[in-house]
TrEMBL record:
Residues 1-31 form the signal peptide. Involved in the assembly of lipopolysaccharide (LPS) at the surface of the outer membrane. Component of the lipopolysaccharide transport and assembly complex. Residues 307-690 form the LptD C-terminal domain. This is LPS-assembly protein LptD. GO terms for cellular component: cell outer membrane; transporter complex. GO terms for biological process: Gram-negative-bacterium-type cell outer membrane assembly; lipopolysaccharide transport. Belongs to the LptD family. It is found in: Cell outer membrane. Keywords: Cell outer membrane, Membrane, Signal. Its main location: membrane.
């Protein structure tokens, strides 16, 4: 065997380029984004390196300036390996021909097969005969021949794409989907893909055909041209067709027009401009419509002729640890964005912000205005939304030398303004989530903690801190009668957490049993240190906050007095990968004011189980104790009445295509919270493969145990072979459901690719 280094780099690069463009073309035309962008652009870089060739026979004809290699030819260049029966390289014309059983492997493991590859025209044209490409994840692309010319156009004849290779399973049955076209012309300069007679096949059966189709190239999103159209339908706007058109205004600026023609409302005009900088980008969007049929929104905010919205945003990184920017939205009415499917959010935030984040420090400053979205949003609803002018949060952690522990500093400044009280009513009980007027609250807390290992392996973690609060409120809302209120409070904090971790091992199994005792003192009798409660409204006492020094979720409330918490934790990890964790305990208020016995207008902490001297007992469990299972449970027990105060349980099993799950929820009636009846529900779900391969049936039922009636029932049938999925499901609700006696059907259809991308609905 002879081995030589030959300077045929340009020829190999062009041959690779022809193969790469053929694959990129197939990706864009056949999969329309299902194959990862740029996946087939595997062109070796033009570094001027040498290509190594191995062959049984290597000859040179000086008369014709032709180098020939025959017999077990192997070429290696920049991680690419090409094999063939024969290679002929003409030094004079630059023509390269790889003939006979040509196979190319790229660095990612994709396999290119062809009868022959010819590179001609002064390294500007390539011709590949009988091309077959098998990707590393099993997708297959074939073409009778591929012509590549001038780096601008690629033509594939009798081309096919299938994500599942031959799309025949181990039992000889057709699966998945494929696309075939008599001819495909890819114009890189105009970023278009033209298909002659494209045909879609499902399970080997042709189901759709067009005489001609022109599509935008999804792999070149910045080039001027049309983008993928979108078709939709809803009752209020009718059938719609949106055809985006993109214009590259410059190297860093893009403009996209998005006209949408609707059968019921006419023409919705939309445009978006994006400009990129070296350290950020700016985006501006505008949409507007003159509604031909405003009565489609009769009785709603959208019952008007002219509707529209303007949205802008910017994001900058002026330094490695700093991010700054803004977002702003202005609209004709709060229902416009969701009505025209321009937003799925319930609200928008207009804000200017700056954020610093490093290993030990965090600072975030924002000016914010919250606006609700939806057809049922009233002027009073919007008036109750807050404006943070500003909100600043910060935190810092410093590790002291020589094992002296850690210093922590965190704080927040909130200046909030509202035009009206924000009140939500449940069965006649008001939740005041925000007060009219202006409130300012500054909170700063510094603390030291360290962990010590004492004799017997006990871990003791003392905690010393000081919190300072300064707040003022103009008294414009609620029950303050217009009287201005101010507060200045200092709260010393002392706590200790003691744990005794006991570890046992049995082979690869391990068990941890950890008794925990905690004592925390907060030397203040004032819990609502923010005067009004704007950020500490969510609270449920459970295993996640059982051993917290301050269980309130925000700065506007704090715990007070002396409290002890006793409990423990058990964690088991088994050799087969299963595991189980149990946490439980109880908290005791020993002295001082009990913050949870003091209700605020937001009703935070009401019914939490912490209002008495002895709290509810809380238990939590989660894990996978058996292969294929997952479980979780949270329970509150009232020891005074020996009753369950709250419970939530869930379990799921999935293995070998079979699945089952159950969820249980219990919350007793509490008139103080506006819950007049027990919430007592159980829901089950099952799924199982049918005797027919790839088919699966699902069913579910939810039952209202309090009302002794069903809440919801559903059943579905799905086909899924990993590449093609379709099915249908029906759901009906019962008389006590939030949307009672509602019957709905859903249909899904998805084409899948090996990369996990999905195209469908």
């Amino acid at each position: 065997m002879l081995r030589r280094d030959l300077s045929i780099v340009s020829s190999l690069r062009l041959a690779g380029l022809g193969l790469g463009l053929a694959m990129g073309m197939a990706s864009a035309a056949f999969a329309q984004g299902l194959v990862p962008p740029g996946f087939f652009d595997r062109v070796p870089p033009g570094t001027g390196g040498q290509a190594a060739i191995e062959a049984d026979i290597l000859s040179y004809d000086g008369r014709t300036q032709t180098i020939s290699a025959e017999g077990g030819v192997v070429m290696v260049y920049e991680g690419y390996t090409a094999r063939g029966d024969r290679v002929v390289y003409n030094q004079g014309s630059g023509e390269v021909r790889l003939v006979g059983n040509v196979v190319v492997l790229d660095p990612d493991g994709n396999r290119y097969e062809a009868d022959s590859v010819e590179v001609t025209g002064g390294m500007r044209q390539a011709f590949l005969r009988s091309l077959t490409i098998t990707t590393a994840d099993g997708a297959r692309i074939t073409a009778e021949d591929v012509r590549y010319a001038d780096a601008l156009e690629t033509i594939l004849t009798e081309a096919t794409y299938s994500p599942c290779g031959l799309c025949i399973d181990s039992k000889g049955r057709r699966i998945g989907w494929s696309v075939k076209a008599a001819r495909i012309v890819y114009d890189r300069e105009n970023a278009t893909i033209a298909l002659d007679e494209p045909q879609l096949s499902l399970l080997g059966v042709p189901v759709a055909w067009l005489p001609f189709l022109v599509l935008p190239d999804p792999s070149q999103p910045r080039l001027t041209g049309f983008r993928t159209p979108q078709i939709a339908f809803d009752e209020q706007t009718g059938a719609s067709l949106e055809v985006p058109y993109a214009v590259a205004l410059g190297a860093d600026t893009d403009l996209v027009f998005s006209p949408r023609l609707m059968s019921r409302q006419g023409l919705l005009l939309g445009a978006e401009v994006v400009h990129r900088f070296a350290f950020g980008e700016v985006d501006a969007k505008a949409h507007g419509v003159y509604q031909l049929d405003p009565d489609a929104f009769a009785g709603e905010l959208g019952d008007r002729e002219w509707r529209g919205a303007i949205q802008t945003s910017g994001r900058f990184t002026p330094a490695e640890t700093w991010t700054a920017g803004w977002t702003h939205t202005a609209f004709s009415d709060a229902g416009f964005l969701p009505d025209y499917r321009l937003s799925e959010d319930d609200y928008v935030v207009n804000e200017i912000y700056a954020t610093h984040l490093s290993r030990d420090h965090y600072l975030d400053a924002r000016v914010q205005d919250f606006l609700l979205l939806g057809e049922d949003v009233s002027g009073a609803d919007q008036a109750g939304q807050g404006r943070a002018l500003p909100v600043i949060r910060g935190a810092s952690v410093t590790d002291l030398p020589d094992g002296w522990g850690q210093l922590r500093l965190n704080g927040r400044l909130l200046a909030v303004d509202r035009s009206a009280d924000h009140i939500v009513t449940a069965n006649g009980v008001d939740y005041v989530l925000g007060h009219e007027g202006r409130k300012v609250h500054v909170a700063l807390e510094g603390a030291w903690q360290n962990q010590y290992v004492v004799p017997g392996g006990v871990l003791a973690t003392p905690y010393l801190g000081l919190r300072a609060d300064a707040a003022s409120y103009d008294g414009a809302g609620g029950d303050f009668s217009g009287s201005e209120v101010s507060l200045l409070e200092a709260t010393p904090i002392a706590a200790i957490d003691v744990r005794w971790p006991l570890v046992a091992r049995n082979g690869l199994d391990s068990h941890l049993l950890e008794p925990i005792a905690q004592l925390a003192y907060r030397g203040s009798a004032t819990s609502p240190v923010g005067i009004t409660n704007d950020d500490a409204q969510s609270f449920v006492f459970d295993d996640t906050n059982l051993f917290s020094y301050n269980r309130f979720s925000g700065f506007d409330r704090q715990e007070t007095g002396l409290r002890a918490t006793l409990g423990g934790r058990y964690l088991a990890n088994f050799a087969d990968g299963t595991w189980l964790e149990l946490i439980g305990g109880q908290s005791f208020h020993l002295a001082g004011e009990n913050a949870f016995a003091e209700a605020d207008p937001a009703l935070t902490g009401v019914g939490s189980g912490l209002a008495g001297d002895a709290s509810y007992i809380v238990l939590g469990a989660r894990g996978a104790p058996v292969a294929g299972t997952m479980l979780g449970a949270k329970v509150q027990l009232d020891p005074a009445d020996a009753r369950i105060a709250r419970a939530g349980l869930g379990a799921a099993y999935e293995r070998d295509g079979y699945a089952a799950g159950v969820d249980y929820l219990y919350r007793p009636a509490d008139s103080a919270l506006g819950q007049d009846e027990d919430q007592h529900e159980i829901a089950g779900r099952v799924g199982a493969p049918l005797p027919i391969d790839y088919w699966r049936a699902t069913a579910g039922l939810a039952w209202d145990l309090s009302a002794q009636t069903w809440l919801e029932a559903n059943a579905g049938l799905v086909y899924d072979d990993g590449y093609l999925e379709f099915g249908a499901e029906g759901t009906i609700t019962g008389p006590t459901h939030r949307t009672p006696d509602d019957l709905r059907y859903t249909v899904n259809f998805r084409l899948k690719s090996p990369s996990g991308d999905v195209l469908g609905f």
